[in-house]
Amino acid sequence: MNANRIVRRHRALAILFIVTALAFRPAVAHAAATIVILNTDAANVGFNDPTPAAPVGGNPGTTLGQQRLNVFQAAANIWGAQLNSVPTIVIDAAWAALACNANAATLGSAGATQVFSSAIFPFANTWYNVALANKLFGAQIDPTTPQIRARFNVNLGQPGCLTGTFFYLGLDNNHGPNVDLATVLLHEFAHGLGFQSFVSLNTGSLLGPPFQPGIFNRFQLDNQTNKFWDVMTNAERLASSVNTRRVVWTGANVTGSVNSVLFPNTPRLQTTAPASLAGNYLVGLAQFGPALTSPGVSGEVMPLSGTGNQLLGCDPFSAANVAAVSGKIALIDRGVCGFAVKTKNAQDAGAIGVIMVNNAAGSPPPGMGGVDPTIGIPTVMITQADGSQFKSFLKFRSRTHSGMFSTLGVDPNIRQGADAAGRVMLYTPNPNVPGSSVSHWDQSAFANLLMEPNINGDLTHNVSTPFDLTLQFLIDLGW
Amino acid sequence: MHSKRQMRTRRFRLPAIAMALVLLAIGGITVTRHRENARPSERVSADTKATAARAAAGTSAGARKGQASTYFIDPATGLPRDPTPEELLELQQQSLQAVEAPQPFTTDTGFTGLRLSDDQMTYTVATRNADGTVTLAHAAGKKAATRQVQQAAQGGIVAGKEQRLER
């Protein structure tokens, strides 16, 4: 107890010292915030690990601990160069043994330590993460508490802890098969700077008490109900949190940057007839076969008939199925055999494309793996729910015609990861994925973005346009 | 705005709900009525805390193993009855909310603040795929991250933008 109190007191004094010292630094004219890494590790642990290390990828540190600290400070400096804040931002950082086994590991965590609301902020009755609240106030609201807390896994790569996969401690993004620590930190620090919806995905409740929206929630719009999250009921927020690809960010800075960051040509399945099914449907893409194009492949949609492997497209098609799908788009259920096998059988039967119907509930539809270089027709996956709708109509087909017409292609007018109005979509899969849902961009974004739920290997350390949208997002919040 | 008594009642209500639900899950408790004509969402009373403690100590018949006896007061009839699934769900959601709720404070400069717990931190979890690549995903809070790591070891997680189903 006493030792803890002493540690806490020393930590508070250290923060006060940092804040005071930095308050008297020379003023700078350009955009800048000072972000300090407060090393709270014990001796010989984490940042203080004395194990010798050879400099790597522009990181000049000669001990493991120094290299770790250098990467943390480098990531902090990238954000510091982009953000404006008079008050210093302090990150309480440490390394600890986090959950792991041979094939999975918790890499680390980060987030804001506090939120504040005040009538002096641009939005009253609204939570702001403490770093942004300090910036808006112009001083530290609570000078004794760091604004962001970060904990990372000290054992990563060791036997039994994602064995053999280490944090890459270089600063040049040349991480190879290892985990680029700088990228992970840029992502996690962005959560701490405000890329976080505090809405409970269990209840739909706002953060509280007092229960009120976070600044994040004021920009979240469900484009199907046309309601913002801050004015929804808990039940409406819960429903919206799984309304896949219908929750968008409305901030002007992000929306104004969409065309310079996201690529056009959003993949889609467009159905034109019958009128009852007309519209665009979400699709999962295939690893095999040609990429979707514009105007795409259009044709009449026909399901398979028969039983067992014949119905599922796992065997060469029967004469009846050849007659049904030849020159048309085949509708096939997922299951039993690989996607490439089904597509190849459909192609051999003369089909011009394949719509795979997922056999498990959920949205968006997943991607399809498989390899077959002889496949020359496109395949997309749709959700089980959409497939059920299609099949209800197709029950009334003849042996060779259905009256349902679709196109497998891309929409050149919609950016990948944005809605038709050019607003970037937030990640709202059904069912929700706690920790990932809502507080990230949708995975359909391309180019890949820093704040997608899975940190992709091709990310750079750039956080602004034309590479990324995170800085614009933070500016929308009030940075 | 609120009388001291109201505030005191409110302060006890949420912890009481949380405790009641926890005990409900492990054996069963007796819940009594606190207010006439209470809305369904308010049916668990402050008395619950004492009753629940008795139940936990084994002094309540309802606490016997396999004999969960949860009583709700029907606001229409004023009589105890079993909750409907919807009412139970509502209570569970309230309980979750109560457990998650941090405590507000006011600074000398007049700001209202909340200290965020570990549950509000974002965790990054790495999972090695069958092809040797590593996928990074997220979890809400330390417990969820640990669970995700355990599930991944059992092959229970399919995550990642580039990851595709094989069949």
List the helices and strands and how they pair.
The complex is a heterodimer of chains A (479) and B (167).
Chain A: H1 2-23, E1 35-39, H2 64-82, E2 89-96, E3 100-101, E4 104-112, E5 114-117, E6 128-129, H3 130-137, E7 148-153, E8 167-168, E9 179-180, H4 181-193, E10 220-222, E11 227-228, H5 234-240, E12 247-249, H6 252-261, E13 266-273, E14 279-281, E15 284-285, E16 297-303, H7 308-312, H8 319-325, E17 329-333, H9 339-348, E18 353-357, E19 379-382, H10 384-394, E20 405-411, H11 470-477
Parallel strand pairs in A: 1-2, 2-7, 8-9, 16-17, 17-18, 18-19
Antiparallel strand pairs in A: 3-4, 4-7, 5-6, 10-11, 10-12, 13-14, 13-20, 15-19, 16-20
Chain B: H1 4-26, H2 48-56, E1 72-73, E2 80-81, H3 85-100, E3 104-106, E4 112-115, E5 122-128, E6 134-140, H4 142-153
Antiparallel strand pairs in B: 1-2, 3-4, 5-6
State the helical fraction of chain A.
25-40%
Gyration radius of chain B, rounded: 21 Å
Low-confidence stretches of chain A: 19-29
Radius of gyration of chain A: 26 Å
| Apparent shape of chain B | flat
Question: How would you concisely characterize the structure shown here?
Answer:
The complex is a heterodimer of chains A (479) and B (167). Chain A has 479 residues and is α/β, with parallel strands linked by helices. Helices cover 25% and strands 19% of the residues of chain A.
Textual characterization of the structure:
The complex is a heterodimer of chains A (479) and B (167). Chain A is of the alpha/beta class and 479 residues long. Chain A has three domains: 192 residues, no CATH class; 107 residues, no CATH class; 146 residues, Glucose Oxidase, domain 1. Chain A is built from eleven helices and 20 strands. An eight-stranded mixed beta sheet of chain A has the order 14-13-20-16-17-18-19-15, sandwiched between helices. In chain A, a hairpin with a 4-residue loop joins β10 and β11. In chain A, α2 packs across α4 and α6 runs antiparallel to α11. The radius of gyration of chain A is 26 Å and the shape is globular. About 2% of the residues of chain A have low confidence. By secondary structure, chain B is an alpha+beta fold. Chain B folds into two domains: 98 residues, no CATH class; 35 residues. Chain B has four helices and six strands. In chain B, the strands form three sheets. A two-stranded antiparallel ribbon of chain B has the order 1-2. In chain B, strands 3-4 form a two-stranded antiparallel ribbon. A two-stranded antiparallel sheet of chain B has the order 5-6. In chain B, a hairpin with a 6-residue loop joins β1 and β2. In chain B, α1 packs across α3. Chain B is flat, with a radius of gyration of 21 Å. The N terminus of chain B is likely disordered. Chains A and B meet through β3, β4, β5, α3 and α4 of A and α3, β4, β5, β6 and α4 of B.
